[in-house]
């Protein structure tokens, strides 16, 4: 059964997995936190993974909206493209600390997806949305304006950078690079891909 959006029901699994972690939370935990029966959860979502994945994708989508507002407040007037890009990564990196449980749940879900085809499909859909969303943030435009080629190339590259930074910040924040180092590191790599004249 395909999960519906959580806005249409009273379930709040996000709070439960933030407290207990993705891998350890049970349907019983979610039912107790939400005051609904386990049977109702099964009927509405089909599985624990479907419910949790729906909650995770919605939480990440809400995070993307907040990030977009933060960057809009920063503004681009008077800022170079490089400064705007650095501001983007400063905001993203800040969220690895502020929203730590969200990103830990993402990593836990990726590991669990090895054992669940349904979960893998749901996460693949979420990654496709993530590519498009990051490309839109990069371009300063709406996701509707991002074509498939842009989502697959710049969007996928940004998602790879995002995932790598996330794992570093979650495991060793003292050594993980901050936004200025990310930008300078990318500059140092540009000669490897620069077209020869």
Automatic annotation (TrEMBL):
GO BP terms in the entry: regulation of DNA-templated transcription
SUPFAM superfamilies recorded: Homeodomain-like (SSF46689), Tetracyclin repressor-like, C-terminal domain (SSF48498)
One protein family per Pfam: TetR_N
Residue stretches in coiled coil: none
Domain (Tetracyclin repressor-like C-terminal group) ranges: 83-189
Keywords of the record: DNA-binding
GO molecular function: DNA-binding transcription factor activity; transcription cis-regulatory region binding
Residue ranges constituting the HTH tetR-type domain according to the UniProt record: 18-53
Gene3D superfamilies according to UniProt: Tetracycline Repressor, domain 2
Protein name: Regulatory protein
